[in-house]
Amino acid sequence: MDHEMMPPRPLMVNPSATVETTTTTRKTTGLTQELLAGMQSAVGAAYVMGLTAMIVVWIQNWSPWAPFNDVAGALVPSLAAAGTAFSFPAVILGTLIHFSVSVVLGLLFAMLYGRVIQPHFNDGVPVLAGFMFGILTWLVAHFTVVPFLGSEIYGTLPFLLVHLVFGATLGLLYPIMPGLKHKG
User: Residue 115 gets which letter from DSSP?
Assistant: First the structure.
């Protein structure tokens, strides 16, 4: 039995599938850039919020260590017991929690801004959106997290102020992050 070698059949590619893949890749890349921008801007906003919080506690004549102890105490209650005293573990853990929560909030802001709001990056819209996001984060924190912490610091008006600073800074930094396609 003599079999002739048949040439391989050419692979048929559906052109519309190629376009879909390219479009999906572009959408994924765009979303990745938006999320990365959200995380980057949140780190900057967390830094500015932290500095503002330190100024606020100084103006209010509170201990500069109380916020660190309270935040760290959410995970390790014995650290909250330090009260107003300096605690190196509380400063480290409190800072890590602060920046970690901020990065998660930055991701949420990027998803909301890019997928729900979809505004242009002009006329102060990002800062206004960030400002409103700061109010939202304060409301959520005030009614869910603060009662858990049991701290008098977080029930005050200055706590709202630092969240407004966080949100406005987030909105200010988000559109200028590298890789974002600017609309408008």
Answer: I
What are the C-alpha distances in Å from 83 to residues 56, 70, 92, 178?
17, 8, 15, 41
Helix, strand, coil: what percent of the chain each, to 5?
75, 0, 25
Return the CA Rg of the chain.
24
49-81 pLDDT tens trace: 999 998 988 888 888 888 888 888 888 888 877
Chain centroid to CA 99: how far?
Answer: 9
User: Which residues fall within 8 angstroms of residue 177, CB to CB, at 6 or more apart?
Assistant: 36, 37, 40, 41
Terminal alpha carbon distance of the chain: 71
Nearest 5°: the CA angle 40, 173, 157 is 100
| ∠ CA 89-160-117, rounded to 5° | 105
Q: Which three-class secondary structure state does DSSP give residue 65?
A: coil
This prediction has a pTM of 0.78
